[in-house]
# Entry
Amino acid sequence: METKSDNQNAGWTKLHLPLCALLVFFSGTFLKANGQELKIVKSGHHSFEVPASYLEERENIPSFWLTTIEEVSDFLYHTVRKGRIKVIGTSAGGRPVRAIFYGKPRAEEGTTTFSGSLGFRDVKAYRGPDHDKTVYLGLAAVHGGEFEGIVGMVNLISVIETGQDLRGKEWPEINKIMEQIDRLILIPMVNPDGRARIPLRMEAYQETDHTVHEFLNTGGNPDGTIIGWPQIKEFIPLDFGKPGFPGGYPNDAGVNIQHDNFFGTLQPETQALFDLAERERPDLVINMHTGAVYMNLHRPFSEPVLKPAFNSLYKYVHSKLASEGLQYTKNTETETNPERAPQSVFNLDGALNLHCGALSVVVESPSHSFSGKTKNGKTAVHTPEMLLDAQLICHQEAMRFLAESGGRSKWTPAPKR
# Structure
């Protein structure tokens, strides 16, 4: 379900967004019996109670920090010239899901399904005659309350289009590596419903207290306490009719896309991703999330044969992060050990792997809202600038890994017949 875009028309999105996509606002304040001030946040057809203090925005928001639906849309239609913007689907709440495409797609389809190619012992039969093309897919904001991935994706697009991120910092390696990859697809906001539910551009910094971020991201109770992780995953879909705030995790149907019913009726956002993956047959999917002390790649629940590829990817990314001071230590031998990677459960990334054969990996970023603590109790402070550097380094090194390793056809070559 793709539509051509007019990249010159920056106002297109505001004219065509459904009304519910725009109606995210405060509707007065009132005091609870315990004296806590609450605000009513309306998003689409739903209203939620949120402690007023949780909706305080950061002062002096950096110019490179673009995270809202309107900011991202305006940026894309004003900036993208080398790439092409397409609407690949519509969210449960009626909001467009946009992707930006660079390079040429695979020209022809294969002769079998992905599963069939595994049975045949040669993924080339699924990937098609140009199986050796390398295709990179970047995802952000599968959880709408995780802003860091959005910022990273927007600034990556700026680098590709202008040679600089929105701070004016040049990233020559990114554009050099871009020339070695055949196809690049970036989705800055997979879950616009979840993002629209949080009426902030940037959360206030809370030192080491994660309460506000978790309330806005994973949801909370009327008294301001958080539902908690992984407790938020116990009920999918969430009942928006119950008291409390669902956070940015679910779409407007109450479903956490990262844990959709992958073998049942899919949410429209998930279906859009599956359709895209079927057409493009990506080699590597980088799925940006927020939830780490230092940026960390998670080992996916995927085909065992892809373990060596993940181990190599982990070393590429973590080595550069460590050398730039964005890991626990600068000891690259320690920081690049892939055995340290947390093991993911079956989720969207495992489903994408089984759907199209891609190595799909969750990357967890630190939060701009609070600082985590290391095992020895040290506070790991990340400035917004450091968070952006980590995002761009991750994409840069993941693309480098793809370009230098050659993609899925090289990772799992067919046996000699």
Remarks:
- Residues 1-24 have pLDDT under 50 and may be disordered.
- The radius of gyration is 21 Å.
